[in-house]
Write a structure and sequence with these properties.
- It is a single chain.
- By secondary structure, the chain is α/β, with parallel strands linked by helices.
- It has eight helices and ten strands.
- The protein has a domain of about 70 residues.
- The protein is globular, with a radius of gyration of 18 Å.
- The chain starts with 6 loop residues before the first strand and ends with a helix.
Length: about 240
Amino acid sequence: MNAAARFEARGVTRAFRGGAGVHGIDLDVAAGEIHALVGLNGAGKTTLMLLLLGMLRPDSGTVRVRGVDLSRADAATWAGVGHLVEHPLAYAELTGRANLEIAARLHGVERRRIAAAVDRAIDEFDLVRYAGVRASRLSLGNRQRVGIAGALLHEPEAIVLDEPTNGLDPAGVIVLRESLLRRAAAGAGILVSSHHLDEVARVADRITVVNDGRIIGSLDPAGFDLERAFFALVHGDDERRRAAA
């Protein structure tokens, strides 16, 4: 295994009733890399992300986070990880600022540094107007901004974001893009899933395609007509599996 990788999965399998899940996945996210994961709904992207974050345990295979086997990962290991998977962390009755303060504490930011970290996150994600507004009154896009800010305010070096552009307006997408590029340039390894291939291509160093719980190929971020290439890969895989069955 590569000790420099921020995340590594080797032969990872997690099966659910009916055959869903992921099957024999090998994946790594290197320091300084934005690695995109794309696939249709139900392809296994979120399951894989949960496995990398220790929120699910694999039936077989191994996962390493920041060079540490998942079974031995401790609070210090997880302090360098940031994630947003499925839903942003935003307590409805708390303000944007209060939500970010809680996120800072959960990520182990020193008490004396919390206010500064929260202020930086509010500025970076353009949340000044919403810092004093309860999350229940925010739009989906602004709740998403709060969730992303909370996932990144402790400057993690290993990041997992599941559909982070969900609900974001064009300005929010640009803010997120710049944030991810800055963090990758500073050495963070970032795994991001998205249905928006054009947006992924703007930031990704690698694009991995998942179908039916398996990695079936990759796309060139600089390639022409990514959507056509993506659907050709998926269709070809579906045809091969039907023929094998």
